[in-house]
Amino acid sequence: MTDQQAGPHADVAGNLAIWDTYARRATIHAALTATGPGDDAVLRKALDDLPDVEALDALRANTAAVAMLVGRRWYVMRDAREAGATWAEIADAVGLTEQAARQFYSEKIAFQEQHVPDLHEAARSQRALHADVEWWDAHGRRHLLWPVGTPVAFTGHVFVGAATGTMYESAPALVIGHDLDDEVTPYRIRINFGGVRVSCLPDQITARRA
Predict the structure, then answer these.
(1) Do the domain assignments include residue 2?
(2) What region does 99 belong to: left with phi over 0, alpha with psi -120 to 50, or beta?
(3) 106, 140, 180, 189: which has the highest count of C-beta atoms within 10 A?
(4) Which of 47, 71, 95 is the last residue of a domain?
(5) Run means of pLDDT, 10 residues per run, the chain, 210 residues
(6) Contact, 152 vs 146, CB < 8 A?
(7) Is 6 inside a domain boundary?
(8) Does 98 fall in a domain?
């Protein structure tokens, strides 16, 4: 290896670049083996233009990049939870069991809380760890519920009289409960924003980062 450094001191892109360079050189070497004498000038020029990468350096770069990518999954898992993904869906996306995915996430946020407490949004990260809250209605349909205490954004009308009211756009709110009535489809969510308590439909609230 000449001008590239593999390992934990390089970033993900740098380690992937080393791995990619090794793979490209290996491909060119294979092509040279299959090319007759006198027909390999272009391939040799392409090989000469690439920095030399030893196999061990490529392996170190691969290992470091994988460790970095896996280690950073936790905050994307949190984002997925806030976007409405279940732990089962997240587990499937990363190739783990649901229990293992939650354990991985739990350990990562504990590390963040211990080592970078001033930069880590502990309450937000802990909320994403909660198990999925689900309800099965009388028709056998599964509904994933917003956990009580979840910060959300409310968009809709709040009526203060028979025909008057105020329209709110993405007003900060907090889930305080659910009205799980099988006669009502979909169910309604009780929220509180600024002291105002409202019963709204699921499509009237969205995730809000606290």
Answers:
(1) no
(2) alpha
(3) 189
(4) 71
(5) 55 94 95 81 92 96 95 94 86 95 95 93 86 79 80 82 75 88 79 85 77
(6) yes
(7) no
(8) yes
